[in-house]
Design brief:
The chain is mainly alpha-helical. It has 15 helices and no strands.
Length: 260
């Protein structure tokens, strides 16, 4: 039912054609044709000639496993090579060292506009400058491609929290910023970014050290998460605990307004 609601023209397809599409996808090495079609019913309308051309074109552009990419994001079959080439070129222009590897790891990067990518780079630049970290935002995002998908409002709130509350980096007991230390820093930032924004803001209402570390904030936020507070309760705590003039508070409610 969901497939037909998404693509009513399915009602006009003969089962003979549907069976041929499922079989043909399997013959081309796709492991789960049914899931692909459920995710993107429009595949039923694509000619195998076009699918084969997309597989070949992705391979020619240096992607090691086009089938896996398409299985992960069937909508790629609807992307023109002009748009894919523009995304690869634009990522290189912004300093990303291996756009192909990034997109293979997370094909949804193809869906993001450069405007959104640039805003994330800008915010992560602020975070890196705040702590004088030994890497740039492109390296941070290359190491963890999930950072492309975080809501921009969440990132803006997070940067304000770290700046306004002067949250510090934990003492890594390392004099030299080697690869291992950098990797640990990236994982730490990634952990923080992936936390629920309401849980993080509620954690600020709990008495804490004036100059606590990021690790301390993460642990307190994790404790709040385990309480499984309803979202409306968390919003009430945020409303009551943060000062009315707080830019963190205003930015949060602007990015996450009450649903009418």
């Amino acid at each position: 039912r969901r497939m037909i609601e998404s693509l009513p023209t399915i009602l006009g397809y003969a089962f003979e054609n549907i069976d041929a599409k499922i079989a043909g996808l399997g013959e081309r090495g796709f492991s789960n044709p049914h899931k692909m079609i459920e995710t993107s019913p429009a595949i039923l309308g694509y000619a195998f000639e076009n699918i084969d051309a997309k597989l070949a074109g992705l391979g020619e552009r240096g992607f090691g496993n086009p089938k896996k990419m398409i299985e992960s994001l069937p909508a790629i079959l609807n992307y023109t090579f002009k748009n894919i080439d523009a995304k690869l070129a634009g990522l290189r222009e912004r300093g990303f060292g291996n756009p192909n590897k990034m997109i293979e790891s997370s094909p949804t990067i193809l869906c993001y506009t450069f405007k959104n990518i640039d805003r994330r780079l800008h915010l992560f630049s602020k975070l890196i400058r705040l702590y004088n970290l030994p890497f740039d935002p492109t390296e941070l995002m290359e190491r963890d491609s999930s950072l492309f998908s975080n809501k921009i409002d969440k990132l803006m709130v997070l940067v304000r929290i770290l700046r306004d509350y002067k949250v510090t980096l934990p003492d890594l007991n390392e004099e030299v910023m080697n690869e291992e230390v950098i990797s640990r820093l990236v994982k730490l930032i990634s952990r923080l970014v992936k936390l629920n924004v309401e849980d993080t803001l509620v954690a600020l209402s709990v008495p804490h050290d004036k100059n606590e570390s990021i690790l301390g904030l993460i642990h307190r936020t994790s404790s709040i998460r385990k309480q499984k507070l309803p979202k409306d309760i968390k919003r009430q705590i945020i409303q009551a605990s943060l000062d009315e003039a707080s830019k963190i508070k205003s930015r949060y409610f602007r990015g996450y307004p009450d649903k009418i």
